[in-house]
Automatic annotation (TrEMBL):
Protein name: Uncharacterized protein
Organism annotation: Avena sativa
Organism ancestry: Eukaryota, Viridiplantae, Streptophyta, Embryophyta, Tracheophyta
Length: 180
């Protein structure tokens, strides 16, 4: 029992209530078990609460209408029977052309699918900031910090740039005093 409490406490520290609610709402789009988790009200709440900049009020009402049609069409369609992930659902909607019929649902699914990417990018940036902005460099200005973080995060791009190329570029800039 103590182990379960410790794990629950760790999960609560890692994921706040808003993130947990978002993840739970996202499960209502899951196609597993013939769309058994599907719930129109939850999907509409997901769109209005977490994506208000992406859906206007009128679009939320249109989304509700699309979801009613979707609920009768997609779970019974043989092409959607064996899907197990939201990603597969999105791909199948595109492959069958149903993404045009259910364009608002498709938009919401694509927004949900970008969640892990945007979260990982943000976490990576904060981890990098902890490494770049040390106690010795804590007075770093925002512009310089941003430049250092870009170089640190985008290592793949910067690998191809030699130190000599940087020196040459720096040397070519007009200066009051010669760099040599």
């Amino acid at each position: 029992m103590v182990v379960v409490d410790q794990q629950l406490q760790e999960l609560n520290c890692r994921f706040n209530k808003q993130v947990t609610e978002l993840l739970i709402m996202c499960t209502s789009l899951d196609p597993k078990n013939s769309f058994s988790s599907f719930d129109i009200d939850i999907v509409c709440s997901l769109a209005s609460k977490f994506y208000p900049a992406d859906f206007e009020e009128q679009e939320i009402e249109n989304l509700r209408c699309q979801l009613r049609h979707y609920a009768h069409d997609i779970p019974t369609n043989p092409k959607f029977q064996n899907l197990t992930t939201v990603s597969e659902l999105c791909q199948q909607l595109a492959a069958t052309g149903k993404n045009d019929d259910y364009h608002l649902i498709d938009r919401l699914i694509r927004l949900v699918l970008t969640l892990p990417v945007s979260t990982a990018t943000t976490e990576r940036a904060f981890s990098a900031m902890e490494l770049v902005k040390t106690r010795l460099q804590n007075r770093m200005e925002d512009g310089f910090l941003r430049d250092c973080l870009v170089i640190y995060i985008e290592k793949e791009i910067t690998i191809g740039i030699s130190t000599d190329a940087i020196i040459d570029e720096f040397d070519e800039a007009p200066r009051r005093v010669d760099f040599n």
